[in-house]
Amino acid sequence: MKSRGKSIVLIGMMGAGKSSVGRCLAQRTRLALVDIDDIVASRFGISIPEIFSKHGEQGFRDAETEALRTLTATGQAIIVTGGGIVLHDENIDILNPLGVIVWLDGNAEMLFKRASRSGNRPLLQSENPRKAFAQILQTRLPLYAKIAHLRVDTSVLTDEEVAVAILSKVRRLNPQPGSPIPATAP
Ligand code: S3P
Fold first, then answer.
1. Which of 123, 137, 139, 159 has most ligand 1 atoms within 8 Å of CB, for mutation?
2. Which residues line ligand 1 (CB under 6 A)?
3. Can you spell out the DSSP letters for 26-52?
4. Is residue 25 part of a domain?
5. Which CATH number fits the domain that encloses residue 74?
6. Rounded to an integer, what distance in angstroms lies between the CA atom of residue 32 and that of residue 29?
7. How far away, in angstroms, is 115 Cα from ligand 1 center?
8. Domain span at residue 12?
9. Is residue 116, in this structure, part of any structural domain at all?
10. Which atom of ligand 1 is least distant from the CA of 140?
């Protein structure tokens, strides 16, 4: 594979652990952590659930793409995306040149348990959250698979173990200077 950009981009379903694994990666690599949900929330000055209820999913998606557009000016970083980032082609076109796209996957039951734990995922506020989750997962699996350069199954790993697995896979994929991982990263 050709040498890719310099960042590590985490994609995957709600509950895959993208935010916490992103923090582990940022600590290990000493790269900046950029969380798209945080950018969107701070733009509106309210939480993600509040954005969904005030502006609808479309309002959130527009702001999500807007936040991604600012990334071209971001240097090398660990980029954490929301689970729905793969829904729009423009998002994928923006993410692709930035670096290695890593899909955090896992078994569906475990992902659902983790995603529903906080109780604040807007897309799971339905009569049957399990069914809603299964439908969303089914739609998205092929999209994650299509755009990811690497996949890590997080089902039986801690966040730190996932981070270590990612760094080792990324190093193998892109070992030359300018790769996302400083040679000193643990
Ligand atoms: C979403 C996932 C959320 C957040 C928003 C929409 C989705 O992020 O972006 O609630 O469509 O799956 P996480 O994947 O971090 O939960």
1. 123
2. 14, 18-19, 37, 48, 82-84, 121-123
3. HHHH--EEEEHHHHHHHHHTS-HHHHH
4. yes
5. 3.40.50.300
6. 9
7. 9
8. 7-172
9. yes
10. 12
DSSP string covering 113-172: HHHHHSS--GGG-SS-HHHHHHHHHHHHHHHHHHH-SEEEE-TT--HHHHHHHHHHHHHH
The verdict on pTM exceeding 0.90 is yes
Number of domains in the chain: 1
pLDDT, average across residues 25-38: 97
In a domain, residue 96? The reply is yes
Q: Which atom of ligand 1 is the closest one to the Cα of 48?
A: 10
Q: Determine the residue type at 49.
A: P
Share of the chain above pLDDT 70, in %: 90
Residue written as tokens 């000193």? Answer: 184
Residue 145 is assigned to a structural domain of this protein: yes
What is the mean predicted confidence (pLDDT) over 29-37? Answer: 96
